[in-house]
């Protein structure tokens, strides 16, 4: 009943518009186009099980023009949803990679510059130990242990004068001597009378000797015993 009533009201509306036209005149093109659009839209809606969008007068040619009306799509045709390509963000990816690499470089530099007592110092020592264990042979392992001994000497120089440096200086001096003795022993087995040993001894003497006036009694005894040991490496045999 509701649909029939709406149709009747629409017909009455069109008749009212026709009544307002002058006698002998024809309907205006806009009226004809609108009426034609409504009739076509209702015809499609009744024949197709899928709803069609309403057609406006601007979308259809007028009755007076000879433009053909486009054919309607198939009865069971459904619009295909277009897939949007995934958005790629190469710039953000590059920036994230660069930031990660920069962070790793800063962290590695801070670890390398750390001294006993710093939070990153255990990581530094662990990296040194791993590098020594991964050595190809005794000669390379001995050289890396001597490099660690040089690093301990530099750390002692950095610790001198800092607050609470007493136990840290003593521990670092002991680690320096342990690395030196282990490295010399390995290098002598792999390369007897190697010139690398004498060069190391001279460099260490130049590094440790200036520290003696800044060390306390126990620390001086440790350093003097170490210097006596490496001086024997330089003496002619």
TrEMBL record:
Compositionally biased residues, Basic residues: 75-90
Organism superkingdom: Bacteria
Bias (Basic and acidic residues) ranges: 172-198
Keywords attached to this entry: Membrane, Transmembrane, Transmembrane helix
Region of interest called Disordered, as start-end residue ranges on this chain: 46-90, 166-198
Pfam families: DUF5667 (PF18915)
Transmembrane segments: 92-112
Residues in DUF5667 domain copies: 114-207
Protein name: DUF5667 domain-containing protein
């Amino acid at each position: 009943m509701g649909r029939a009533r709406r149709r009747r009201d629409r017909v009455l509306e069109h008749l009212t518009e026709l009544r307002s036209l002058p006698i002998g005149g024809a309907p205006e093109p806009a009226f004809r186009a609108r009426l034609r659009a409504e009739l076509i839209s209702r015809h499609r809606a009744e024949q197709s099980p899928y709803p069609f969008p309403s057609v406006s007068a601007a979308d259809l040619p007028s009755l007076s023009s000879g433009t053909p009306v486009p054919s309607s799509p198939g009865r069971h045709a459904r619009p295909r949803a277009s897939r949007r390509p995934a958005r790629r963000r190469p710039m953000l990816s590059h920036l994230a990679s660069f930031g990660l690499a920069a962070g790793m470089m800063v962290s590695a530099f801070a670890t390398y510059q750390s001294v006993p007592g710093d939070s990153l110092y255990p990581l530094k020592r662990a990296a040194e130990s791993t590098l020594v264990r991964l050595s190809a042979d005794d000669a390379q392992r001995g050289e890396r242990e001597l490099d660690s001994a040089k690093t301990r000497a530099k750390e002692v120089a950095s610790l001198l004068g800092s607050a609470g440096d007493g136990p840290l200086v003593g521990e670092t001096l002991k680690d320096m001597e342990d690395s030196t003795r282990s490295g010399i022993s390995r290098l002598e087995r792999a390369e007897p009378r190697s010139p690398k040993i004498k060069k190391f001894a001279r460099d260490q003497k130049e590094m440790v000797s200036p520290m003696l006036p800044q060390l306390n009694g126990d620390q001086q005894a440790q350093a003097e015993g170490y210097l006596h040991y490496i001086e024997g490496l330089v003496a002619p045999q």
